Amino acid sequence: PELATVAQQVGDVWQADMRQFPDWIQIAEEMQRPWMILVSDLSSDTVLATEMVIEAPDGDQLWRVMRQAICCPMAGEPRRPGIVQVATDELQAVLATQLEPVDVRCVASESLDHITHLMDGLAKQMTGPRRISALVESPGVTQSQVGSFYAAAADFYRKAPWRQVPADSVMRIACDRFES
Fold this sequence. Notes:
The chain is of the alpha/beta class. It contains four helices and seven strands; from the N terminus they run E-E-E-E-E-H-E-H-E-H-H. The strands form two sheets. It has a five-stranded mixed beta sheet with strand order 5-4-1-6-7, sandwiched between helices. Strands 2-3 form a two-stranded antiparallel sheet. A hairpin with a 4-residue loop joins strand 4 and strand 5.
């Protein structure tokens, strides 16, 4: 529908953002960090539209998801908010050109707490609790060591030695350096 004909809830405040997933997840047999495009309604604490993409999205993709939130939201009836908050001036400029002609103010906000809360919850659902700290933040560990560790882990994964051992085999691993 034409956006100007969609009913407006002047008191509603929405937030919209595009963020890369904080952790790696498996998508079609491959580990990736996808991007989430999310539009939420602060007034009703609901997600109105979302899209997951592999490549970094642009403002046009955010606009497409915003239009979906207005015309065909995941929750509630089609409606226009009074205000849409976004994270950056660049996103504000992109969405304002589309929203302001239909009487929706678009503003850049330093903090999008609602989107952050939703993204953290989604990440926890998909990947479990987040790590307390990264390996590279451990005392005495250099970036070179971490890179070497990940290269060795990737090589081990590609060689997949577990495929050559029957699942019911008993193994003993011993190391003179450690007692247990």
